[in-house]
Design brief:
Elements (H helix, E strand, L loop, with lengths): L1 H5 L1 H17 L4 H13 L1 H24 L2 H9 L1 H21 L14 H14 L4 H15 L5 H26 L5 H27 L1
Length: 210
C-alpha cells in the first residue's frame, strides 16, 4: 500500500487534483453562473454549468501537459478574437439573466436540453481565455519535471477531477440553501449576477482596447 501511494502516478494525480480545485474555486463568471442557475433550476443545472468549465480546464491542461507548442502559439494569436467572443458572450448572458423572471417553484427542472446547453456554453466561455494556457504550462512543466515517469494524462485527469469536485461542492451547497430563497430573493440574486457578469464582460472588452 505504501509503495502504491509513493509511486509517481498517485502523487501526480493528487497534485493535479489540487491544481484543478484551486483553479476552479475562485468565484468568477462561471461561479456566478453556477450559483444563479442552481438557485433557478437546482443542483444539476449548477453542476452542468461548472462541468463545462472543468472540461475546458482539462483541454488546456492537456495542451500544457503535452507541450503542443504549435497549438499554443495558434491559440494565443487568436487572443483578441477569443476575448471579443468571451466579452460579448458575458454581456449576452447578463442581459438574459437580468430580463428573465424569477422561477416560481424551486423544484421545477430545467427544460429538456438545457443542461447540455449549459455545459457547452461555459465550455466555450472558458476556452475564450487562452492566456490560461500559460499558467497550465508553467505548473504542469514543473510537475512533469519532478515525476517524469508519469504519463501526462494523469495530470489532465487530476485537473478535471479537481475542477469537477469543486463544482459538485458549490452546487450542492447552494442547492441546500435554495429552498430558503423566495421569488424576491431570486430576482435580487439574478440582478446582482447580471450586473457582475456585465462588469466582467465590459472589463474584458476594455482590456482588449487598451
Amino acid at each position: 500500500m505504501d509503495s502504491l501511494f509513493s509511486s509517481p502516478v498517485p502523487v501526480l494525480f493528487g497534485q493535479s487534483l489540487l491544481i484543478g480545485l484551486s483553479i476552479a474555486a475562485p468565484v468568477g463568471q462561471i461561479g456566478l453562473l453556477a450559483i444563479q442557475r442552481t438557485l433557478d433550476h437546482g443542483r444539476p443545472a449548477g453542476l452542468a454549468t461548472g462541468l463545462g468549465a472543468a472540461f475546458a480546464d482539462a483541454v488546456y491542461g492537456a495542451i500544457g501537459a503535452f507541450g503542443v507548442s504549435g497549438l499554443i502559439a495558434w491559440l494565443l494569436s487568436l487572443r483578441r478574437w477569443l476575448g471579443l467572443f468571451g466579452g460579448g458572450f458575458l454581456l449576452w448572458l447578463a442581459w438574459r439573466i437580468a430580463t428573465k423572471p424569477a422561477v416560481r417553484r424551486a423544484d421545477i427542472p430545467p427544460p429538456a436540453g438545457t443542461l447540455l446547453r449549459y455545459v457547452a456554453g461555459t465550455f466555450a466561455l472558458t476556452l475564450s481565455n487562452p492566456t490560461t494556457i500559460l499558467s497550465f504550462m508553467a505548473v504542469f512543466g514543473a510537475l512533469a519535471g519532478r515525476t517524469p515517469s508519469a504519463p501526462p494524462w494523469v495530470m489532465v485527469a487530476g485537473v478535471l477531477s479537481g475542477s469537477a469536485l469543486w463544482w459538485l461542492i458549490l452546487s450542492t451547497g447552494v442547492g441546500w440553501l435554495r429552498s430558503r430563497f423566495d421569488e424576491r430573493w431570486q430576482r435580487a440574486v439574478n440582478l446582482c449576477s447580471a450586473a457582475l457578469l456585465a462588469g466582467l464582460g465590459l472589463w474584458q472588452l476594455g482590456h482588449l482596447i487598451i
